[in-house]
Design brief:
By secondary structure, the chain is an alpha/beta fold. It has one domain: Alpha-Beta Barrel (TIM Barrel), CATH 3.20.20.80. The protein is built from 13 helices and 12 strands. Helix 9 links the parallel strand 10 and strand 11. The longest helix is centred in the middle third of the chain and has 21 residues. It is globular and about 65 Å long. The structure holds acetamide. The site of acetamide has 4 residues, from loops. This is beta-N-acetylhexosaminidase. Its EC number is 3.2.1.52. InterPro entries: Beta_hexosaminidase_sua/sub, GH, Glyco_hydro_20_cat.
């Protein structure tokens, strides 16, 4: 991936990616390789692997071995949509859920990931690893309760939603984060390392005497929520400096803007309603566009016509019409490094369903990103699509029926 190549003004972009989430439902390595082959076929060049979340830890750490022995599997999984989904302030485990009673898990060894990186490189695809921190830490906390402040053991998350368990923001938390990111840098050669940063609830920090003292020592008011956004920003800056010492750039979801982002980072803009792309680029920060339109875990049309998903989403035609400069002021267009589709897997329980959700929308996004304004008309795109879908079938990929 040409890390610093600036895009042409026609909307063709150097970072053209997709994110896989093997945490909510594990994606076997053979399917990850298949995705790499598919990306190469459609001229995409980044596979973002989301390797840790509340519901499972998927990266083998040699320094923190309980992440694989204890955090890589959960005892059961919520069935269907969790009750009361999205109700603010309610712990996901307290939703009115039904569970399947089946253990679910998996992880990738460092040897497997190194081999994947080399395989992908041979295909012109960069693997961008993500370890989500300081939020989405429930699974890690199940393995190492001391990564929180009160050390209370708990289970790996079994439901969907945002868990309140976060990484402590003082030295033990920093040591953990740097150990893991160090191992990540040993395995992956991507110029970007993603540290997540999204959806980090601040309640644990705001009620922990250690974190309260930490913000006070930073000259901030421990009773003010914004102080904890600044604490997250401080944490992000520590990670950015650590990654810079390894020759890497920090990439994070747009929440890393909230307390003020450090120099030299890249933002993945996903929250349309906070005008993330505009906020980042106005601050001179390069972005990768990943708005909700590109959340391919949402259905490809009206929900009544589709299998259970997180909600109604973008059609093929809407994806093909995507403007990579959406939300970006004219004068900051050169800060758009690229774009990415997301395949969060709460409602993608197996590879067959993964391909159904991903394709053919991913082909549409690939053309948007690779050809920019020079892409075919939608009518011509549709005419050529059956032949491209046949190529994917040769890889064992069967997507959604064509419109
Ligand atoms: C996200 O969808 N939590 C980045």
């Amino acid at each position: 991936m040409p890390a610093c190549l600036l895009p042409a003004d026609d909307g063709a972009v150097p970072y053209r990616g997709v994110m896989l989430d093997p945490c909510r439902h594990f994606v076997p390595l053979a399917e990850v390789r298949r995705m790499v082959e598919a990306l190469a076929l459609i001229k995409m060049n980044v596979l973002h692997l989301h390797l840790s979340d509340d519901q499972g830890w998927r990266f083998e750490s040699l320094k923190w071995p309980r992440l694989t022995t204890h955090a890589s599997s959960r005892s059961k999984t919520v069935v269907g949509r969790p009750g009361n989904y999205g109700r603010e302030g309610l712990h996901p485990e307290n939703y009115l859920n039904k569970y399947d009673g089946k253990e679910h898990g998996g992880f990738y060894t460092q040897a497997e990931l190194s081999e994947l990186v080399a395989f992908a490189k041979g295909k012109g695809v960069t693997i961008v690893p993500e370890i989500d921190m300081p939020g989405h830490m429930r699974a890690a906390r199940a393995a190492y309760p001391e990564l929180g402040y009160n050390g209370t053991p708990q289970e790996v998350g079994c439901s969907w939603g945002v868990y309140p368990e976060v990484l402590r923001a003082d030295e033990p938390g920093l040591k953990f984060a740097k150990d893991i990111l160090g191992e990540i840098c040993d395995v992956f050669d991507s110029p970007y390392v993603h540290i997540g940063g999204d959806e980090c609830p601040k309640e644990e920090w705001a009620s922990a005497p250690i974190a309260r003292k930490q913000v006070k020592d930073m000259g901030l008011d421990p009773d003010h929520l914004d102080s904890y956004h600044k604490l997250q920003a401080w944490f992000t800056a520590e990670m950015a400096a650590f990654l810079a010492s390894k020759g890497r750039k920090l990439l994070g979801w747009d929440e890393i803007l909230d307390g003020g982002a450090p120099e030299g980072v890249v933002v993945m803009a996903w929250r349309d309603w906070t005008h993330a792309a505009e906020r980042a680029t106005k601050a001179g920060i390069p972005i990768i566009q990943a708005p909700s339109l590109l959340y391919f875990d949402y259905a490809q049309g009206p929900e009544k016509d589709e299998p259970l998903s997180i909600g109604p989403g973008a059609t093929l035609e809407q994806v093909y019409a995507f403007d990579v400069y959406k939300g970006v002021p004219q004068e900051h267009r050169d800060l758009v490094l690229g774009t990415q589709a997301q395949l969060w897997s709460e409602y993608i329980p197996n590879p067959k369903h993964l391909w159904y959700m991903a394709f053919p929308r991913l082909i549409a996004l690939a053309d948007v990103a690779y050809f920019g304004k020079n892409r075919d008309s939608y009518e011509d795109f549709l005419k050529k699509l059956p032949a491209r879908v046949e190529e994917l079938k040769k890889l064992g990929i069967q997507g959604h029926p064509l419109p």
